[in-house]
């Protein structure tokens, strides 16, 4: 009985498969057929397993691709994890925690607060995003109110003589903002919102998802607003004509091939509208109303400033021999800045002055950067070609400046407490 059961089972399976149609019952043939079927199924399973493994090839974007010193210690950087536990409105609130940094708040929202780093003013501090310069060509400074904090992965601080490697205006210090990188197969979204008095509100929204393997799309928007420019609502700010409304949009396309090359395109757009009241007019304001926003008389009720900034970047990064410690990056960038100043006679209280000033500037360039880091040494070499154009009204016209620069730095760690460096 036990010897017939397997034959019956084989017979049922083969009949169900249509294999035994019009064939005589032969146990040897049946066993041979079943063995062939099992081998074919194993081959198919092995092929499917190989295809599955091929489809799961790991794709990782190059980490901290925009860093100037990827392995610097925590005393010279602020990470996104640190920012989570810090109170801030803009980048200046983060920098204020650094030793040697002093920020003089102008007392009016949207104003470019005065920065001093190690005794050097803001014109001697270079702000960079992923290693490329961001300072305004006209003023030589950077308005820290503009950059969205939630787009920051890390802030690097380079001080001392070696800061001079990162731009002509970095004699005091260089502050490099490393942008966040996203690579997610599932849709990722985030919303941050805060609200306060004087119609204060701050919003940051983000969405990121891979379009297909290796290609990620990320979009974010930020808005900072305080006060209003509506006279019927008494401006709803700390003082009349002191409102600020700033928008920021950021878009990133990132393509990563496994262990070979990353290509990143990004666009960062800023738009601001800031009321310029010129401060309290002490001659027209009674002493008891100087700090009363509804009773104080302002110097100007109809002056304002609008700015529009575009920043485009296209970067290609590659490993050398699949060694993640040796990275070469080529960046092409373009920035355009526009500042519109208006003093218009369109309010109930006017100063009798009408003025309109338009300032425009642009910068474009190419940046090549090579880094090589090991536990005992750090090499950084850069080449940059840049053209800056400034347009400051019909009386001055267009000014064009072309510049070329190259730099190299080699640091050797002799002991844990001793590092030797050569740079130029």
Kindly describe this structure.
By secondary structure, the chain is mainly β. The chain has four helices and 19 strands. An eleven-stranded antiparallel beta sheet has the order 9-10-11-12-13-14-15-16-17-18-19, with no helix packed on it. A hairpin with a 6-residue loop joins strand 17 and strand 18. The longest helix is centred in the N-terminal third of the chain and has 29 residues. The N terminus is likely disordered.
Structure characteristics:
424 residues, mainly beta, eleven-stranded antiparallel beta sheet, 4 helices
Secondary-structure-based class equals: mainly beta
Topology as a string of helices (H) and strands (E): HHEHHEEEEEEEEEEEEEEEEEE
Terminal CA distance reads 92 Å
Proportion of residues in β-strands = over 45%
What is the arithmetic mean of pLDDT? 81
Uncertain stretches of 5 or more adjacent residues: 1-23, 51-57
Shape: globular
Please outline the helices and strands.
Elements: H1 4-17, H2 27-55, E1 77-79, H3 80-84, H4 91-95, E2 101-104, E3 114-117, E4 120-121, E5 125-129, E6 132-133, E7 152-159, E8 173-179, E9 188-196, E10 200-212, E11 215-226, E12 244-256, E13 261-275, E14 303-320, E15 323-343, E16 355-374, E17 377-391, E18 398-415, E19 418-423
Parallel strand pairs: 5-8
Antiparallel strand pairs: 1-7, 2-3, 3-4, 5-6, 7-8, 9-10, 10-11, 11-12, 12-13, 13-14, 14-15, 15-16, 16-17, 17-18, 18-19
Helix pairs in contact: 1-2
Short description:
By secondary structure, the protein is mainly β.
